[in-house]
Amino acid sequence: MSQWKQIQQLEGKLLEHVDNLYDDNFPMDIRQGLASWIESEDWETAANEESVAKVLFSSLLTQLDRMCSQESNFLQRHNMKIIKQQLQVKYKTNPVLMATVIATCLREERRILSSACMQEQQGPLGKSLQNSVSFEKQRNMENRVGLIRSSVQLMDQAVKHIENLQDDFDFCYKTLQSRDPAENNSKETSKELTNLQEMLNRLDFKRKEILLKMDVVIKEIDDLMTSQLGPALQEWKRRQQIAAIGGPLLSGLDQLQSWFTVTAQSLFQTKRQLDKLGELVLKVTYESDPIPLQHPQMEERVKYLIYHLIKSSFVVEKQPCMPTQPQKPLIIKTGVQFTTKVRLLVKLPEVDYQLKVKTTFDKDLPPGRVSRQFFILTNNTKVMDIEDYSDGCLSVEFRHLQLKERKYINGTKGNEGLLSVTEELHSLSFEACFTVQGLTIDLETCSLPLVVISNVCQLPGGWASVMWYNLLTDEPRNLAFFANPPRAAWSQLSEVLSWQFSTFAGRGLNREQLCMLGEKLLGQSASCNDFQVSWSKFCKENMAGKPFSFWMWLDSILELIKKHLMPVWNDNYIMGFVSKELERNLLKNRKPGTFLLRFSESHLGGITFTWVEHGDNGEIKFNSVEPYTKNRLSALPFADIIRDYKVISAGVVPESPLKYLYPDIPKDEAFRRHYNSHPSKAYPYIPSTLIPVSEVRSSASISPPSRSPEPPMTPGEFDMLSEQLCFEIDTMSSPYSE
Hints:
The radius of gyration is 35 Å and the shape is elongated. The chain has 23 helices and 23 strands. β20 and β21 (665-666) form a beta hairpin. It has 738 residues and is of the alpha+beta class.
């Protein structure tokens, strides 16, 4: 099933994420109308190579012309023509940007699809995150915020009633005072004084009543902020950490903004009510008046709550990320632009002036903590804007930040060697200050810890650090984390590793594949999910007998899948992490020609296939081809290798040994839709095909060098056959090798 068809079968909330991907930069009409063609092209390569991007841009315009000509609806045809014109204007001089936009959309679609799969097959970490945003908790919060809002609005009416009572009392009192003493009738005056006393008693009762209600509401807001609103924000921040390393899609910030805003509105309204009571005291007061006694403390409490609510509502909505690595945030390369976004979750219409946000790198970092120091090369101050789509919240996005390393006198950097470059953690801080309703509030927040690299070869190590940190701690700024990194439970780590395949390759790992990976890293201990994995074993130590670490090996496989094996991987045709021993057990009882695909254990980023043969004497023989790496797969698509693979043996015409994909799927049935079609017959040339071939030599041919092996065919025959078929020769040194 095509990716777009899978997208259309998603539930409502996930479809909303898809809807947010598409705009004028890449209209959904185009995604819908050209779904098959778009998914068949290599937009990732085009996003990095201008020549490829130009070809695809031209092809896109051609596809749009074809689409218009086949559209019978006049209005749709008209809209398509307008879209084509807009795309031409936008991308004619920058086709790489178009390729980047489309590649990002396709990548995010795959992530949304994998998120849907995660919900069905969640591990312990995913389930804990789902529980943190349960519907019951949201409904409880919604009800509580609503009740507080209603209570505050009712107090408005109570304050107005007190004001009316006070006006009546004030009028009667001043009327009595202004009367000529000679006109006073003692009996009448006594009656009026009694009436005034009753009015004052009623006023006193209402003042005490409103202050009691205010005290209850203020305590309720305080408790709401402490027990629910604050934890809900912390849970969102934790989910943001997990989403950053490939976990479930992040949502809920708009809901948090709604709760923060309503709570802030309730506090501001309570403050205005207290201010009004303070004004009433200036007009009428009396002995044991409750307002002068309670007003100052209540006002201070309300100001304190407003200050801390707004201060905590200043959050990093999008963590720092390079546009070239959208799925690997929190890694910044010097000299490369990166983006980040901060947001104020409280909607404040009272803020009617420009609110400037300043960003600082490694603010207040203790001396000697890191061996390298950096500064922001570009403009680090920007004004917050009101976003219409988020119902008027204030936010600011820094799109063109760039880091540069500080130069040191005499070339000395200080504490070199304490931690590797990819283990040094840094921080990006954001500051702002504004005044609202007489309150001056200093805002400050910071990004999650960053890894700064100077070369792309450091990217895998940097990403390992980002994963390890965000998996194992929710501390926002523990920059000394890798001085003594904690261990990770295999149950959690394996879930994160599966997310990497979901995010970067489109399909996560199943239980069997995770077990195989666990045995690769931990041996038989992997059977225990609570087994603790050290940072060193995961990323720094070489695997037994190998010149590379477990993570470097796994990351190279991810890159190989992403660039060369994605369609085959997503069809679940690559078994992947299979040891040679298990491979033999799986194949030994299968039909001759049955093969499986697995990743090389001895090569970084290599894939091989092994097939089984049955000899006339009942002997079972296993053959594996030399692993295909990215260099070899750049010249020939992997599905075509499977289709055309041949073996040459002595005196036998080359033939394909690959018949059935394990367990028993006919080869062409499995891979046909991934085969490259031959060039069009309109060309006046005979099409040629590059065919991968292995030469299997007899045991005699690999005997001691003193004997001259007899070739399976004459040199002339072999050269002629090679020239005609464009053979790629993979000489197998033994009947079974990687």
